[in-house]
Hints:
By secondary structure, the chain is α/β, with parallel strands linked by helices. The protein has helices at 13-27, 50-58, 73-78, 87-96, 121-124, 127-146; strands at 2-7, 33-38, 81-84, 105-107. It has a 4-stranded parallel beta sheet, sandwiched between helices.
Amino acid sequence: xxxxxxxxxxxxxxxxxxxxxxxxxxxxxxxxxxxxxxxxxxxxxxxxxxxxxxxxxxxxxxxxxxxxxxxxxxxxxxxxxxxxxxxxxxxxxxxxxxxxxxxxxxxxxxxxxxxxxxxxxxxxxxxxxxxxxxxxxxxxxxxxxxx
Length: 147
């Protein structure tokens, strides 16, 4: 399974989801390829946000230094799933990927019973709430994919 998480800048939510799911998959012995990207060019080249690093560290989730990148046309064919963090990401993803002809685009919280958007901690400052949503979404995603 190859999964790409996508958010606006690729420094907060999508990177948090990338490393949370990598940790969950590793603990379950799953050999999945998991990465993340941005819809915008605003943070290209920047490392993970310090708030995301702090939250991952507090939860004992390993991560590596990385540089934000923008999603590419090639990502659509390469990844099995491209998962956005909010409806604005999905609007940009659908436009970029020509309305998702292979039905690969999803919202992370759509794997949960409640659905909805993951608030951007860049604006809210609340990395705890973002982590809780991402953990819930990634748990539900793994359960769905393993069925």
